[in-house]
Amino acid sequence: MSLDTLILAGGFAKRFRPLSDYVPKPLFPVGGVPLIYYIIEKALETGSDEIIISTNKKYENHFRHILSALYSFYEPYQIGKIRLVIEPSNSEENKLGSIGGLHYAIKEMGINNNLLILLGDNLFSFNLNKIIKLGNENNSIALAIYDIKNPDDAKNYGVVKLKNNIIKEFYEKPQNPLYTTISTGIYYIPKEKLYLLDEYMNSNYSKDSMGNFFEYLIKRGEKLYGYVYNDDKEYWFDIGTTESYQRANNFANEKGLYRRWIWP
């Protein structure tokens, strides 16, 4: 099966200023290691043909420098899978947004394979092959779902209602969420469904958030699937606030997640 992975790392992280004025959030150290290293490791586990990292013009050199260090940790055939695509934006004011950046990367890199999409600011343990399998079995878009337990936390994310792995409802950052099952920023799109992004880009809907795209698809009758990662051993952190960043760092240090990349 042909599969590409696209890591979206083109945001400007306003909530982390002034730090994010100089360092992009996917390169923030977690346990002393750039966050994106953990994400690349999970992408490699899927056997992807290519791993494409999408960032913006402002942070291009940051990524080229950090990625050059991967030669110390991976085999040449693994390094050869990793590519970088640069969005033309260089500030918050002219950013493409998550969907705009996704669409730009697909067109710029000529992607026509099944596509796994990972947001570049998450730390997680999920076996990504499970969501890929679910999407392939149903030839449908599939989302990785996690029960965050707390409704106050859920309102910061896309909230979903599931029945038999089918997403019946999707609400992007609702003020009063009815459920605590959320979208985690991990998505699978079979190549037969990539055209839906073209349709959405030609609509008047917001291009800033992936959640807007999924709300649109459900309203027009597209069937979406969700795989719930609910094993007690699973973990997921969204590095969206300084508090969550601190929790992710504490967890990585406690569990020794960084050891894969520490010399000697």
Task: Explain how this protein is built.
This is Nucleoside-diphosphate-sugar pyrophosphorylase. Pfam families: NTP_transferase (PF00483). It comes from Nanobsidianus stetteri. The chain has 264 residues and is of the alpha/beta class. Helices cover 31% and strands 25% of the residues. It has two domains: 1-122, Spore Coat Polysaccharide Biosynthesis Protein SpsA, Chain A (Alpha-Beta Complex); 126-234, Spore Coat Polysaccharide Biosynthesis Protein SpsA, Chain A, CATH 3.90.550. It has helices spanning 35-45, 60-68, 76-79, 97-109, 128-138, 151-154, 195-201, 210-219, 242-255; strands at 3-8, 29-30, 33-34, 50-56, 82-87, 114-119, 122-124, 142-147, 158-163, 166-172, 181-189, 225-228, 236-238. The strands form four sheets. The protein has a seven-stranded mixed β-sheet, sandwiched between helices.
